[in-house]
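sanity check this fold:
=====
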Amino acid sequence: MTLGRFLLLICILSVLFAAHSQTAAGFPASSFTKDGDDWYDNWDIYRTYYAGPRGFLPNLASETINENKELAFSIGQNFQTNYPMAPDRAVAILKYVQTWTEYGYDSDNVVRDGKYQEEWAWNADEMAHAFDENRGTVAVGDCEDMAFLCGTIYVGAGFDAALVDAPGHVALLIWLPEFSNANKYWDLNDGRGAGWIWVEATGGSNPLGWTPPDFEDGGWSAYPIGNLDNVVAPTETTSPSIDISFLLGIAAVIFSIILALLKARGR
């Protein structure tokens, strides 16, 4: 093989590698940065503090729905395919999350820079990647971690969902007025009346629609997540988008290097 052909092969392989890197799936938050005693992710969302414009509640939900959907959302889509009746689907999703998650305190399980974190929130895809059905491995998290996981799965399964911000607790509501076994049906003043039911995944036996007694007074806030009108379910034939300008830029740089090397060789 001549030097020219070898360099051309390198150019082609480099472009193909770049294309793969642009389309490879993965959960959004890939790095964390420390700011004083707090940590934030590459989406500029604090993982150690819940409130404010950069707090994780409800902002962390945006990392795993709509155009950012990945594993947790696809789990919800599978439930929508396998459970055509919404009440059965909703019950099955909660049971699934309860089966593959285990409640654990952040201060016992999350370590950054060698220090256990008193507060830390995982997004839905991070939780979904942490359990393994084949190996029987569960994901460990606390109330907000399970609420974010449930929220994305339910949205992926076709439900309207809302995160509950209660004193010392985070949970989820879904819109399911036809469900017959809830102990409370909530009205979020969205014009639809009472039909939101509680999803409490922090206990392995909590039934769908059960609002814990501590929160029956309604002294909490709710944040709707997702916009089902803008969610387009991917199909098996859908191809991920590729940033063509990015690839052309890489190709141009490599081609320039090849020309320089060929000129140097010809001297």
User: Anything to note?
Assistant: The chain has eight helices and ten strands.
